[in-house]
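Appendix B, record 7
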Amino acid sequence: MRKVKKAIIPAAGLGTRFLPATKAMPKEMLPILDKPTIQYIIEEAVAAGIEDIIIVTGKGKRAIEDHFDYAVELEKNLLDKEKFDLLAKVKFTADLANIHYIRQKEPKGLGHAIWCARQFIGNEPFAVLLGDDIVKSNVPCIKQLIKQYEETGRSIIGVQEVDESETSRYGIIDPMSRKERLIQMKGLIEKPSPGTSPSNFAILGRYILTPEIFNILENQETGAGGEVQLTDAIEKLNRHQSVYAYEFEGTRYDVGEILGFLKTTVEFALNDARIKKEFEIYLREIIYKTENNMIFH
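Structure tokens (predicted):
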């Protein structure tokens, strides 16, 4: 069985939920504290043993490439000023992984974005990590899925339970049987209408897929939102080659919409030793002012 050594990170979306901030800046570069969201995703992949990463970009995404490249002038400036801690952080991003890029020339959806990277992947199993989901866990989330792939030889999708009121926002699995955290599925459905969801196990941005998915994606018709949906292609794959879901361990943060982004920022700040104490004091002050009607609009 071939090892999972390559990963695809789709980053071609328009980021409309964050407009106007994302008019000129890729949403993947919006920072949680002092790191852009996409760096958290790449660090997870690297920690899981992924050796080569291809980022599928679109128009206006050049900042992503610049972030993971060397910045000669900036590095020299930091060196001259003996700001060695900052220099180490800047160089770290450039040395983080072997990163490649390909452009999705038309916004045809997640499934099409994955298909764009087919030549890079070749005939190998591969990981997919979506940038809207950051997962904090003792064992990297994608590594948990790789372990399940190594034991089953089948495609694995990462899931967690969500509230029933939120199932229409996600791809949802239809479970058939379960052994501990590994779930065999009857099928999958992309964004079921309210009240029609077969479960509340949502697909949350982490996949290990076998290369057979590319043949399906090549002929996949458009689905929800008029786009080529990866969930629909995995549903077809499941009919010919069993696909499993795995309820991964860890806390998942939704950074793909404003409220989730703000919650993530606050929680990460409260766990950052550099600013934790002062930030807690600030939050207490805000709560006090709010409770006493001291904040005016």
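Remarks on this record: The chain has a mean pLDDT of 91. The CA atoms of residues 134 and 253 lie 5 Å apart.
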